[in-house]
Design brief:
Helix content: 40-55%
Shape: globular
Largest sheet: 7 strands, mixed
Number of domains: 1
Strand content: 15-25%
Order of helices and strands: HHEHEHEEHEHHEHHE
Structural class: alpha/beta
Distance between the termini: 36 Å
CATH class: Alpha Beta
Length: about 250
Amino acid sequence: MPPHSANVQTDARTNYAGVRELWSNEKFLTNYNLDIVSKVSGHFGRLPDVLEFGAGIGTLSRLWFARTGVQPDCLEIDDGLRTIIAERGFRCYGSLDEVHTAYDGIFTSNVLEHIEDDVAVLKKLYRLLKPGGMLAVYVPAFMLLYSHIDEAVGHYRRYRRRELLHKLEQAQFAIEQCYYVDCVGFFAWLGMKMLGPGKNGSSGGDGDSLDRNLHLYDKYGYPVSALLDALAFRHLFGKNLLAIARRTQ
């Protein structure tokens, strides 16, 4: 199911449709965001030169800096969001064409699904890495879960593990790891989809209700989900996928 054209970002229309969600996610999904940064930085180690592709309001870059002491560069095509990132103290590019340096690591979270030709972008990211440089890709999983929320914020797709691996290999990356994240969130998102617009605080419903649900899930549900993921479920299913890949040449 393609997103509504009005919600899709393009080179000509860079405004992001989910700005409110970015602020809510930063405020109410603390455990979720910290876990993404912990996982990716654990795979990367202390790489000195890091870029966040599709940085939003800079939530993950701020956590990355606090956790590792390395201040990432950012890339964000939305003019308003780029201003916020700059005000938060980060260097921020407006497009891949502006980047003329090579990085030791690039991470991107919940971004590729917004891009129609995701393989072309992966090939560009490959060229921005130093030989041996690492890429971390965090994306939503399973088209079964594609909902009014995905459509509202401009998602073209949700990914299966095999699909993501194939696209990374098309871009010449060597895959190091790829696994699902947030097994409990799989069922929470499925329930949200079944409730539909206006029933869960999103896409026309009560935003405060959605924020409360995010906060409760992050505080009580996500820690349980992370534990179950670590035990075995990351190999089976989850609301998201995390892939770690490397440029070999």
